[in-house]
Amino acid sequence: NGSVDVLNIRTRAVSHLYVSPAERTYNLFKTTFLKDHKGRIWAGSRRQGLLLLDVAAGKAHKIPMPVSFNFSKQVGKIIKPVEINDMDVMDDRHLILATSGSGLVIFNTENHRYRQIDLMGHTEVANRYNFTTAVQKMNDSLIWIGTMDRGLVKYNPKNDTRFYFNTLKKNTNLSFDNIGELYKDEHGILWVGTKGMGLNLLSTQTSFFHTISDKNTHPKLHFQSVRTLYKEGPVLYVGGYNGLEKVNLVHNTCTPILNSNYVPYYITTLPGDPGHLWIAMESYYGLMRLNTAGNRFEYVQPNTLEKIDPQIWLPYFRIQPFGDSLFWLGGRNGRLLLYDYKNRKTVRMFSAADTTFLTGTIRALCLTKENRLWVGSSSGGLLVMNPFNYQVLYRFTNLGNQKDNLHFNTVFSILQSRNGKIWVCTDNGFYVYNDSTQSFRGFYASDGLKNDNVYAAVEDNKGCFWLSTNGGLSYFNPVKKTFVNYTVKDGLQDNEFNSNAWFSDSTGFCAFGGIHGVTWFKFDDYVQDTINVKVLFTDAFLDYKPLKSSPSITYRSLLDIPAGTYNVTIRYAGIDYLNPGKIRYRYKINNGQW
């Protein structure tokens, strides 16, 4: 009859709010109701737009809201009344409206002004009608939006940034791109109902991962596998098997600046050369010096002090700044050069020709606060040297199965944490060095690490470590000695990451590269799982026979076991919708006689 019915749930009495014929919803389309922070009741309809309900007066008032429809450049803009599919409260003065064909609308409840947000722009996933179906506010800087044909949109109203989650992207398990309903539960889990492909849930604890790849992301890389990363301001430099690209994280653009014949392996800046990046090339192009203002390159080939054909350009894998005009440079066959980059000359060189030095490729260098240079190779283990007089202080290699010593010879990276400890990433675990005993303690998959192949470690502002592996990312607490693991199902570029493809800075930005792009995030956005898993008893057997119990054992606090029972079996389950496969159980019997 075109009215809005009000049901008193105590008395079961029904009253009607009169809606004038021009404002009636006709109940032909979905209508959604919402109470704002001031207690006002709003109704949103796909037929008649937004209504303000005056329960005391028994009336409903229509809010005129003509909006642009479609946003398509091919069709052009059409002005028509807003069609509302869903609503949520944004703050004490604004509502968020999901609309049919008009994107997202932010409505001011005080002056009835509003603005539209085009969610179709800058994405490769077609949505000619800007059809948003559901909206759920999580906090002041995060709003989730469901769409008709491109899945979920993660929108930040503070900086107008958005990220897309749909079935075409590798970093999501969303079952269908046509979203019907969104709901946030008390644990902060976002439940996503689709129109035809069931129910999904999204852990807001892992949705802080952002991925850039060569497929269906914005921005989009022009190559697949990432070998090195470096960030300067809003620009993230990404090097891979097909060149070097510049990603602007503010404007979401990606610009190739080096062609596919080059393979950058390490990028850094030097204190005595502002405005330039120095790039160690895995392919046979030596070093490159990039002028970041004009994208101009200069080739640099250090003299190795060996009798080598000058036409042969050697690959390099790691640059370690040393003072205002020098850096250490790691290469193949145990080559370690001390290079004067201002005067373009080699000061000193070490190689595998010296039996006291390392074999293999030198790709891990770390200059400590104590002015010790740690050097790691691909096959020769570790050594520690004095970088001033070149004296080798310690040499560590795989000594077999001796306790608390090296169980590796392949070193990917070395890190000194803020508390001064040395951590080593290897092909057989993650190690910490004990300076007093000159020995190592290892952490492995058997300890909870996702994979024993650990490429890089980055320390966050809490003293914990993010580790990139061949099985995903691991978050390691060195005090509790616990691991939390994340995989491609949590939004990573892939489970497999690459050596040397990592970067972090003082702003809390962190990025890891792998075989399908880059995953980046901010330390401050990370929230660990604080959900207490509820454990339920599900079944019981006495002498291998099912216990017939009323009420069910699940709802009983006491279970009487008859005398003479020889065998008791109890089954139980932990209720965790996010990661049921990660639940670990422990139990004890509170009686010393058992």
Structure commentary:
This protein has 594 residues and is mainly beta. Among the domains are: 1-63, no CATH class; 534-575, no CATH class. It contains no helices and 50 strands. The strands form 14 sheets. It has a four-stranded antiparallel sheet with strand order 3-4-5-6, with no helix packed on it. The protein is flat. The termini are far apart. Mean pLDDT is 86; it is low at 122-126.
Short account of what is shown:
Helices cover about 0% and strands about 45% of the residues.
Fill in the keyword field for this structure.
about 600 residues; mainly beta; four-stranded antiparallel sheet; flat
Topology, number of strands? 50
| Terminal residue distance | 71 Å
Class from secondary-structure proportions? mainly beta
Mean pLDDT rating: 86
Poorly predicted ranges (pLDDT <50, ≥5 residues)?
Answer: 122-126
Helix content: under 10%
> Strand arrangement, largest sheet?
3-4-5-6
Q: Indicate the proportion of strand residues.
A: over 45%
Total helical segments: 0
Shape field:
flat
Q: Give the biggest sheet.
A: 4 strands, antiparallel
- Rounded to the nearest angstrom, the radius of gyration is 30 Å
